[in-house]
From TrEMBL:
PANTHER family found in the cross-reference section: PIRIN, PIRIN-RELATED
SUPFAM superfamilies: RmlC-like cupins
Family indicated by similarity: Belongs to the pirin family.
Identification of the protein by name: Pirin N-terminal domain-containing protein
Ranges where the Pirin N-terminal domain occurs: 53-115
Cofactor(s) needed for function: Fe cation
Note on cofactor: Binds 1 Fe cation per subunit.
A matching Pfam family: Pirin
InterPro entries assigned to the protein according to its UniProt record, in alphabetical order: Pirin (IPR012093), Pirin_C_dom (IPR008778), Pirin_N_dom (IPR003829), RmlC-like_jellyroll (IPR014710), RmlC_Cupin_sf (IPR011051)
Species classification: Bacteria, Pseudomonadati, Pseudomonadota, Alphaproteobacteria, Rhodobacterales
Domain Pirin C-terminal: 169-274
């Protein structure tokens, strides 16, 4: 099978001031502004909170999906609670308001990814999916444990409903362990090292904690991203998705196909016509739907 290359390497910048006071620090893992290189990933933030309590304010989204991965601690709002290792996959679609009465634990850390939606699904009805870590399928090999949150890995297929085809895998490797992650050739992919260090890709690029290795689409049908843990082992999150190759216009919390569509989102929101996530029934993939 074709081995994918690591085309470029970036790093998570030093944490700076967040939007919620001195106890909130943040950095951009994926910065906006170069969608042809990151498509379908518009941005991804690394949010860190040092003090327990209220966090942020209710706000809208439209024209995108947010994928919130709880790395440490917990966060609770009117829509439910996310514990360490849980993921909220929220399709904003035609518009939604969320993060009402948010409360977080001290030491909380999360990644929030913004995905652009295909043109045909950009204004789909909003939905919320809660992916519980303990309920997600796992793929194991000697020295490797991979939790699949979206997409499929071997016989491990996540229950996540996707508007954009996306693979999201949390991979833990013991020292010296190697792993080949198969990915469609058309997918754009990036690997974030949460802890430890790996040699990645066909050229064995060394990625340490906080490194982000990008592997762009290639010819053919499928290739694999090779990972080899160095001394001490590693934990790596891999995000991969089908580029949409569309023009978008973004402002604030909205992503649209035109300025007219963007203006329509603002008008609808100001008229109070966006549903609130806390009043919706999210799909909880640990079991039945929750109120």
């Amino acid at each position: 099978m074709l081995q994918r290359s690591i085309d470029r390497v970036t790093r998570i910048p030093a944490l700076g001031p967040g939007f919620d006071g001195d106890h909130h620090k943040a950095a951009l893992v994926v910065a906006p502004g170069d969608l042809p290189a990151t498509d379908p990933f518009f941005l991804m933030a690394d949010d860190n909170v040092t003090r327990a309590g209220a966090f942020g304010e209710p706000h809208p989204h439209a024209g995108l999906e947010t994928v919130t991965f709880m790395l440490k601690g917990s966060m609770q709002d009117t829509g439910g609670k996310l514990e360490e290792g849980d993921v909220e996959w929220m399709t904003a679609g035609s518009g939604i308001v969320h993060a009402e009465n948010s409360m977080v634990s001290a030491g909380m850390r999360l990644f929030q990814l913004w995905l652009i939606l295909p043109e045909a699904e950009r204004n789909m009805p909003p939905r919320v999916q809660i992916l519980r870590r303990d309920a997600m399928p796992t793929h194991t090999e000697p020295g490797v444990a991979a939790t699949v949150y979206s997409g499929r890995l071997g016989n491990a297929e996540a229950p996540t409903r996707n508007a954009v085809p996306v693979t999201l895998v949390d991979i833990e490797l013991e020292p010296g362990a190697t792993f080949e992650l198969p990915l469609p050739a058309s997918y754009n992919a990036f690997a974030v090292v949460i802890d430890g260090a790996v040699d990645a890709g066909a050229e064995d690029h060394q990625l340490g904690t906080g490194s982000v290795g990008w592997s762009g689409p290639a010819d053919g049908e499928e290739g694999c991203l090779n990972l080899k843990a160095l001394e001490g082992g590693a934990r790596v999150l891999v995000y991969a998705g089908q580029p949409q190759n569309i023009e978008v216009v973004a402002k604030g919390p909205f992503i649209a196909g035109s300025r007219e569509e963007l203006s329509g989102y603002y008008t609808t929101y100001r008229n109070g016509k966006f549903p609130h996530a806390g009043t919706m029934r999210p799909v909880d993939h640990a079991g039945e739907d929750t109120a």
